[in-house]
Amino acid sequence: MGTVVLGTGSCLPERILTNVELESIVDTSDEWIQSRTGIAARRIGGKGEKTYQLAAKAAERALEAAGVMADEIDLVIVATLTSHMLMPSTACFVQDEIGAKNAFAYDLNAACSGFLFGFDAADKYIQADHSKKILVIGVETLSSRLNWKDRNTCILFGDGAGAVVVGYSESERGLLKSDFGSDGSLWELLCMYGPQSLNPDLEIENHPGSHVLMGGREVFKHAVRAMEDAVHGVLDKEGIGLDSVDLVIPHQANIRILNKLVERLSIPQEKLFINVSKYGNTSAASIPIALDEANNKGLISVGDTVLFCAFGGGFTWGAVLIKW
Ligand code: UT7
Predict the structure, then answer these.
(1) Is the pLDDT of residue 93 over 90?
(2) Which terminus in the chain has less CB density within 10 A, N or C?
């Protein structure tokens, strides 16, 4: 008995930016990017593909798959760090765009872990009121927040949106356990400053501009360790081992991070869903995009145990276990 996914959807921008094209933008090579990250291409938002528009399209597809009308939705949660505007929230734009007129709406920022944090929050609302139906969306337009002269970061990220409609089921299915953590003391290793302050007293010293900044090597180490701990945490809470898990859908950051995770946890390669080569790291959108793709490919059956794990700026991390 619990919170189940009623439908999934996603929306990727049309424009594909390949590694070969990146070679003419920064000093890099397809070979370097593929071998260090596993990324071959990423999507870049264009006209009609603003953050809220990608999110709304993904939401409409999830609603259609769920057979739920927009006005049946009680809450819209949008996980993003590239909100359309600072105010109102992207969730409010989505609520209007899709006609979810009975829903309240808000954004949540937990960087790349945001979708899982939102999924868990939705579960708490649904546990409190079984009649609720909630849209949880992960969306990013990180192409708008990258320093296209910094080869350390601009090759990694991409744009896109993924969404789920969740509701209550009396069956044995649902969200089983979650396990989350944060460590704000390490914020500087993966961060993005906001706009310059108009109040000089509140300005951040040495504001370096509003784009992604990252200490790649350190992030790498923390990401592997934190996701490993979160996976152990969630499995221990449920009292099961990885052999009981049918599919692992991790945050799609980098193939080397995922390979390390697989090695440390001894996950059979065939249980891992990976699509990072096509879309790069889409931050909060990566798990719901991967989930939609895995679902559409028929890789998840009713009753399967599915494990999600994520890591992102903050630092933030977590794992969620569901019975599909
Ligand atoms: O959601 C979490 C988000 N963050 C991540 O997933 C990032 C985690 N970190 C990583 O995946 C890796 O640290 C990177 C892929 C970012 C970098 O790989 P690395 O093996 O840690 O390389 P590095 O930073 O130690 O750099 C090695 C060399 C350097 O050159 P020198 O100093 O040895 O001459 C870099 O300047 O590679 C150079 N380099 C590049 N060369 C070609 C850095 N970026 C590039 C590039 N193309 N795009």
Answers:
(1) yes
(2) N
The CATH fold assigned to 175-323 is Peroxisomal Thiolase; Chain A, domain 1 (3.40.47)
Ligand 1 atom closest to residue 257's alpha carbon, by position in its atom list: 11
Token digits of residue 103:
């829903």
Which H/E stretch holds residue 167? strand 159-169
Question: Mind listing the pLDDT tens digit for each residue in 272-302?
Answer: 999 999 999 999 999 999 999 999 999 999 9
Give 228 Cα–ligand 1 centroid separation in angstroms. 22
Nearest residue (CA) to ligand 1, atom 47: 28
The domain defined by 2-171 carries CATH number 3.40.47.10: yes
Assess whether the region 2-171 and the region 175-323 belong to the same CATH fold.
Answer: yes
pLDDT of residue 243: 95
Ligand 1 pocket test target in 152, 218, 283 with most atoms within 8 Å of CB? 152
303, 97 in Cβ contact below 8 A? no
* CA atoms of 195 and 211, how far apart (whole Å): 10
pLDDT value at position 125? 98
**Could you tell me the pTM of the whole model?**
0.97
Q: Which of 154, 222, 251, 295 is catalytic?
A: 251
pLDDT bracket for residue 1 (50, 70, 90): confident
Only one residue has tokens 């291409």, namely 41
**254: Cβ below 6 Å to ligand 1?**
yes
Per-domain residue ranges of the chain: 2-171, 175-323
